[in-house]
């Protein structure tokens, strides 16, 4: 059995997106706020994490910064896994406003992440996101304890929870 500690990144500085008018994946380059780094430092003290053998991270800045803080505090190596990235709201990579992001997110929520019959959407479906998350998780079932620094929507494909607070830990157990 493998215990995965799913740790959502700390609070990100979303204001940078508007300041620099970032588009598509550029919007995922924002770092953590000062509060976000403090949140992760607090999380790194959680006694459950002392058993972890490695840290897996999404390639997005907010998750990488979270993983870097955990790595420093826990003295663990980080492996970046591209498929741990957050939900992709626009597979055309052209959205550039918070309003468009909210529209795409609302449509995803309205349809529970499932494309309506006979219709295609711009956003990544829940099943697409789950498949890539499962692929990563299955490669690490030979470990006992693994930290994953990542994202709320991606984690919700694995566990049935509502909103996940920044820098919080969800224990997820898998059997080979």
TrEMBL record:
GO molecular function: phosphatase activity
Any single GO CC term annotated in Swiss-Prot or TrEMBL for this entry: cytoplasm
A Pfam cross-reference name: His_Phos_1
SUPFAM superfamilies referenced in this protein's UniProt entry, alphabetically: Phosphoglycerate mutase-like
PANTHER family per the UniProt record, alphabetical: ADENOSYLCOBALAMIN_ALPHA-RIBAZOLE PHOSPHATASE, BROAD-SPECIFICITY PHOSPHATASE YOR283W-RELATED
Protein's name according to its UniProt entry: Fructose-2,6-bisphosphatase
Organism classification: Bacteria, Bacillati, Bacillota, Bacilli, Bacillales
């Amino acid at each position: 059995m493998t215990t995965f500690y799913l740790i959502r990144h700390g609070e990100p500085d979303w204001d940078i997106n508007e300041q620099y008018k970032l588009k598509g994946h550029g919007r995922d380059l924002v770092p953590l706020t000062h509060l976000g780094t403090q949140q992760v430092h607090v999380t790194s003290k959680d006694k459950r994490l002392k058993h972890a053998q490695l840290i897996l991270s999404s390639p997005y800045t907010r998750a990488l910064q979270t993983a870097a803080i955990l790595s420093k505090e826990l003295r663990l190596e980080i492996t970046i896994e591209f498929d741990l990235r957050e939900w992709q709201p626009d597979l055309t990579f052209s959205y550039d406003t918070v309003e468009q992001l909210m529209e795409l997110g609302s449509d995803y929520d309205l349809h529970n992440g499932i494309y309506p019959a006979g219709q295609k959407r711009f956003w990544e479906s829940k099943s697409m996101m789950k498949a890539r998350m499962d692929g990563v998780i299955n490669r690490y079932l030979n470990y006992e304890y693994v930290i994953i620094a990542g994202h709320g929507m991606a984690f919700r494909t694995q566990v049935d929870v509502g909103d996940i607070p920044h820098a919080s830990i969800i224990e997820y157990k898998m059997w080979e």
